Amino acid sequence: MGTFLGLKVYTKLFPKFMKKKIFYVLLFLVLYVGLIAQTTIYDHNLKRKLASFDLNNDGVFSLNEQTQEQQKYFNLVIGDAGDNLMPITGLFISFIVTASVYVISKILGYITNLIKDR
Questions:
Q1: Beta-carbon contacts of residue 67 (< 8 Å; ≥ 6 apart)
Q2: 4: which residues sit within 8 A by CB, 6+ positions away?
């Protein structure tokens, strides 16, 4: 019953917009920009948290500034390649998600046409 109701909602609300290619271009761009923004914000927060351990603001962590928590954030900042690789990786992730939505919408459209023909 739930699948049938989902198909009814799909046939009423989405086909006109999802048939347009602009929907998939917008989906790709929103996903890509969102991934880049999320990675940038995460990287900025890590660096800000690490900078909070630098008590004399000289850019170097002296022995009294080095703690377990500081070491944890230091390792996260220097070991994080995500902010550098996300522009490339984000292209692939956005493409895969957009292609999946496109294929699923085509399958749902095909199933809807089969149900209408009965």
A1: 53
A2: 115
Phi-psi region of 60 (alpha: psi -120 to 50; beta: other; left: phi over 0): beta
Q: Which residues contact 46 (CB under 8 A, 6 or more apart)?
A: 73, 76, 77, 80
Count of structural domains within the chain: 1
Q: How many CB atoms lie within 10 A of CB 98?
A: 20
d(CA 73, CA 33): 26
Its domain, for residue 79, covers 2-117
Would you say the pTM of this structure is higher than 0.85? Answer: no
Distance in angstroms (rounded) separating the CA atoms of residues 104 and 114: 15
Task: Pick the closest to residue 10 from 85, 116, 99 (CA basis).
Answer: 116
Q: For the chain, which ranges sit under pLDDT 70? A: 1-19, 55-64, 80, 82, 118
